[in-house]
Design brief:
With 316 residues, the protein is α/β, with parallel strands linked by helices. Helices cover 27% and strands 25% of the residues. It is globular. The termini are far apart.
Length: 316
């Protein structure tokens, strides 16, 4: 009954998930601030985590798979990223970045790839982007560190988010000052991402972004940007369906008897064709079959050898 009542009150539009003990532990570690400063974006994060009932309940939870695993990282601070780049052949560069940006309020980690752009790209035809990013809660990384140096003119991504009618959704829209239009039984929110060139390297070749079913959050927004602006060709398999919808962190509520927390998102994102990104994920431009290596198939598509065969000495 409590779940039904909350769904009726909040007009939930996303999936309902119980919060795992691992995720609760991660949030609790971050709660050294006791009160998250940007409460508009992080909803009722602090109030839910600081409540006595959930604290006691999750203290006694010891079975690993007792409840459904929450989609966000087990620990925000331990799985930090790293980046490498190399010239695969005379025509192709590869940029490989793992979990580049982890942001929760003022706890931030950024991976610097500025050294990548010091290479000579005049004769390069292709750049392959291998971004293993499941955690980022901001679009800032790919906007500033990947797109801005590789464009020579402004790029715009216009997205739409649907929310059902309800006081909590309306309150969030007002607090975040979102551009919203009232529609029957809900709101249509317009999100615009504008990217301007910043220290461009004047790259004139093609860019390929690799994604799969594990690609989530900001990486999904980046994949949509690539598809809808033509910045890059998206290669791989459909993404996970957890894009950043502009409405902040999922709403947290407490089951009064058990003390378990449940969460849900307030909206769903759709692309310009009306496809439900929140449920279906981003569909690649070039689809790679399950079980096949996306990187190897991309190299094959480009007519490249799987083996790295660039030797600077041979090119001179």
């Amino acid at each position: 009954m409590i779940v039904k009542d909350n769904l009726n009150e909040y007009k939930n539009i996303g999936n309902l998930d119980l919060v795992s003990k691992e995720y609760y532990s991660a949030m609790n570690k971050l709660n050294i601030y006791r009160k998250i400063s940007n409460e508009n974006y992080y909803s009722n994060f602090s109030d839910a985590i600081n409540s006595d009932k959930p604290e006691k309940t999750y203290f006694y939870l010891e079975m690993d798979n007792l409840i459904k695993y929450f989609r966000i990282r087990q620990d925000f601070s331990e799985d930090r990223g790293g980046s490498t780049w190399y010239q695969h052949s005379k025509d192709t560069f590869v940029l490989d970045v793992k979990n580049p940006s982890q942001i929760l309020d003022s706890l931030t980690y950024k991976d610097d790839i500025s050294g990548f752009y010091s290479n000579d790209f005049k004769s390069i035809k292709n750049i392959i982007l291998k971004l293993d990013d499941k955690f980022s809660e901001s679009n800032d990384y790919w906007i500033r560190h990947i797109v801005a140096p590789l464009i020579t003119q402004e790029k715009n991504l216009n997205l739409k988010v649907l929310t059902r009618d309800g006081e909590i959704a309306k309150s969030r829209i007002q607090k975040l000052e979102l551009n919203a239009e009232e529609i029957p039984n809900g709101n249509l929110i317009y999100l615009n991402t504008k990217v301007m060139p910043e220290r461009p390297i004047d790259f004139k070749g093609d860019i390929y972004l690799l994604v799969d079913e594990n690609s989530a959050n900001a990486l999904e927004n980046f994949a949509m940007f690539c598809k809808e602006t033509g910045f890059a060709t998206v290669v791989g398999r459909p993404t996970s369906g957890n894009p950043l919808d502009g409405l902040g962190y999922p709403r947290l509520s407490i089951l009064p008897n058990s003390g378990l927390l449940f969460q849900y998102k307030l909206g769903k994102m759709i692309d310009k064709n009306g496809n439900d990104i929140t449920r279906e994920g981003v569909k690649p431009d070039i689809l790679i079959k399950d079980g096949e290596s996306i990187f190897k198939e991309t190299l094959k598509y480009l007519g490249e050898s799987e083996n790295r065969d660039y030797n600077p000495e041979k090119q001179n």
